[in-house]
Amino acid sequence: MACDFLSLAMPGIQKLSPYVPGKPVEELAREYNLDPASIIKLASNENPMGPGSMALEAARRELVGLPRYPDGNGFLLKQALLEHLGIALNRITLGNGSNDVIDLVARTYLGPGRNAVFSRYAFAVYAIATQSVGAECREVPDRDWGHDLEAMLAAIDTNTAVVFIANPNNPTGTWFTAEAFDQFMQRLPENVLVVLDEAYIEYAEDDSLPDGLQFVSRYRNLLVSRTFSKAYGLAALRVGYGVSDPEVAETLNRARQPFNANSLALAAAAAALGDKAYLEKSRDCNRLGMEQLEKGLKTLGLSWIPSRGNFIAVDTGRDGMQVFQQLLKQGIILRPLNGYGMPAFLRITVGLPEENALCLDALGRVLNDV
Ligand SMILES: *Cc1c(COP(=O)(O)O)cnc(C)c1O
Fold first, then answer.
1. Prior bond of 171 cis (ω within 30°)
2. Atom nearest to 96 CA in ligand 1
3. Pocket residues for ligand 1 (CB within 6 Å)?
4. Which of 3, 38, 264, 347 is within CB 3.0–4.6 Å of 335 for a Cys-Cys bond?
């Protein structure tokens, strides 16, 4: 009899469905026979500006070193994080993207008999990381699409080892204040590790949001994760980092794959930290693009969830999947949110001004037909 390799997998894995990424440009070009250059992808919260010249140059310089393993300690990137953000070297855990850090936390602190608490409409990777190691997902109902920190505290029991929180949250763009977060941390059992996912913090531009780095020295059970995939424009290189108590960092390091951050990524990320002009431009581009999208959506009579990220979740008032499909035919890739239990919503990443304009135009045309 033939083996059923799905049913041979660990139970947590069997119950997973694979992560659905934004549709790649090349795939759409093949399916509809479109010119890839004419396709607009606003589906994965990528930086629309192209890479920064300093990061690009640094990555280029590393190419001759391809035969050699990267520095497994990532010393130069850690040094740059110290120099630019004041993060002590022994608090840093580098990852192959910040998803790798999330996965590392799950492998280190979660497993059968333990649970992770996170919110409804939270980032899909938390459930994947948790279930993959046989731990239980405790999904807590949202409050107005965002984190209900009170309810999350109430969901914690003696088997809770990790709480995952994104601020701002993806896919909803919602956020909470420093005050609310501080109160949450004060009331949290000190043996529960909080992962504060700040993938979009560079875009938040709102003083009321907590700067996770300010809280790490106050709470030993806090790990802040950040990434170079969004505002720094390096998603393809896969590099992010965790900032935590040195003891947590040392523990995570035991489970870390050697060489998880590659040499091009290490060099480009270190250079990107020094490219203040690029980061400023990313923020400016996002602020203007967000205003443009909100104005356009209002004209179209659509509502949305206010966002502090580089994306916006729009209520199409219809079957969002159908709107998504129609937009594909026009060469526009957005992100349907049916997988998040938000079937009427599409998530739009803030693009360049002309991309935003074309997206709004296409949306206007499609809404009349669906
Ligand atoms: C995009 C994103 C990340 C970043 O993932 P990387 O692995 O660093 O590319 C992390 N968390 C959230 C909530 C995100 O949306």
1. yes
2. 7
3. 45, 97-99, 123, 166, 170, 197, 199, 227, 229-230, 235, 240
4. 347
The model's confidence at residue 250, banded by pLDDT at 50, 70 and 90, is very high
pLDDT in tens, 124-152: 999 999 999 999 999 999 999 999 999 99
- Per the listing, tokens 């033939």 go with 2
Write out the two tokens for 9. Answer: 């997998």
- Nearest Cα to Cα of residue 224 among 245, 199, 251, 242: 242
Quick one: which of 309, 340, 349 has its CA closest to 124?
340
pTM of the model: 0.97
